[in-house]
Specification:
The complex is a heterodimer of chains A (92) and B (165).
Chain A: H1 8-28, H2 34-56, H3 64-84, H4 86-89
Helix pairs in contact in A: 1-2
Chain B: H1 16-42, H2 46-76, E1 79-80, E2 84-85, H3 95-126, H4 137-163
Antiparallel strand pairs in B: 1-2
Helix pairs in contact in B: 1-2, 1-4, 2-3, 3-4
The chains are: A mainly alpha (92), B mainly alpha (165).
């Protein structure tokens, strides 16, 4: 395997870590509600997304410029989601 | 810990945590196979590329099947706003907003999944035509990046629509 790719075993370990994070986030949703639950669930989601970005999308093996563009793309998408949720998030 | 509830209690026979979690696991597995296909492509191995892409495609289709089944359950429970919406219970007035977002966001995500399935099928069907074999790296990698991105979006939709209470 060249320096541009993770080993297959690394990918498999990342997948198992993703499943573990998924199980933890589903389990925590039974104990945490409201803002604490939302922050925890989104924290687990951010950790999973980071693993996908770094290993599945190979950002670990790319130059800084590629990384910046990748993160910027996701940042803009995040803005769009927050705007879509703006009504919901500000309801009393 | 109890705080201000973000989402009203969502009615339904199937706990939404169960179906959402199962679907997330399916999609993560699909992404794993796309990443493995990418590795095989870098080594110029056509056959593993095709098998991995086929596995990723089937898992993606399974995701959409589960989603369709979820929509079907919502239809049977009269929870589709504008079409078939007769919610019951104390939280009924707050439910339309949740379900509009639920169908809007999962629907848009599902459309992107359909596009991704088309891309994967197209790339997989063309692996044999690349000379040399390693020339299929670019299409597998580009299609894979799209697939992983759609996966990432689901990773955030899952807590927002299935876990947060």
């Amino acid at each position: 395997m060249n320096a541009r790719s993770p080993a297959n075993l690394t990918l498999l370990s990342v997948f198992l870590a993703l499943l573990a994070l998924l199980a933890l986030s589903a389990a925590s949703s039974f104990y945490l509600t409201g803002t604490a639950g939302a922050v925890t669930a989104l924290g687990f989601a951010a950790a999973k997304a980071a693993l996908i970005f770094v290993f599945f999308m190979r950002l670990r093996y790319q130059s800084g410029l590629v990384r910046i563009f990748a993160v910027a793309g996701f940042f803009w998408f995040g803005l769009a989601v927050v705007l879509a949720l703006s009504d919901y998030l500000t309801r009393r | 810990m109890r705080g201000r509830s973000w989402v009203p209690p969502i009615p339904g026979k199937i706990p939404r945590v169960t179906s959402g979690t199962a679907n997330t696991a399916v999609l993560l597995a699909s992404s794993l196979f796309v990443a493995l296909a990418d590795n095989a492509a870098q080594l110029g191995r056509r056959t593993p590329v095709r098998w991995c892409l086929a596995a990723a495609w089937l898992l993606g289709a399974l995701f959409l099947g589960l989603k369709l089944w979820e929509y079907h359950e919502k239809f049977r429970e009269h929870l589709i706003p504008g079409l078939h919406f007769h919610p019951a219970g104390a939280a009924a007035p707050q439910l339309p907003l949740f379900f509009v977002l639920y169908f809007g966001m999962t629907g848009l995500h599902a459309l992107h999944m359909l596009a991704g399935l088309a891309v994967i099928a197209w790339v997989a069907s063309r692996t044999a035509s690349y000379r040399p074999a390693a020339a299929c790296v670019a299409p597998v990698e580009m299609g894979g990046l799209y697939w992983h991105f759609v996966d990432c979006v689901w990773v955030f939709l899952y807590p927002l629509l299935y876990l947060v209470r």
